Amino acid sequence: MRLIDAVVIRLRKIMEERKITPYYFHKEGGIAKSTISQVFNGKQQKIMLDLLYQFTSALGISLKDFFDDPIFNEVTD
Fold it and tell me: Which helix (H) or strand (E) covers residue 58, if one does?
C-alpha cells in the first residue's frame, strides 16, 4: 500500500469516528478546498509533511498519534 493511501484511510477513519466531513479541514485547518479534494479523491500522489500536519492539527492530534495505527504497517513504498 502507498503511504498516501494509508494516510487517506486513517483520515477517513478518524472523520467517521468524529462524524466530520472533509469541509471541516477547510474550516478548522485552513486547507484549500481544492487540496482537500485532491487528497480524498486520489488525485494527489504524495502528501507533504506540512500538509499532513495541518490535517492533524485541525483534528487536535499529534503526528505521533496519527501514525500510531496498524494501517501504517502495510505501507510498502
Answer: helix 49-59
Provide the Cα torsion 23, 46, 75, 51; round to 10°. -50
In tens digits, the chain (77 residues) has pLDDT values of 899 999 999 999 999 999 999 999 999 999 999 999 999 998 988 889 999 999 999 999 999 999 999 999 999 87
Give the separation between CA 25 and CA 61, rounded to whole angstroms.
Answer: 13
Count of residues for the chain?
77
Measure the CA–CA gap between 31 and 46, rounded to whole angstroms: 16
pTM: 0.89
CA distance 14 to 57: 13
Mapped onto helix, strand or coil, the DSSP state of residue 42 is coil
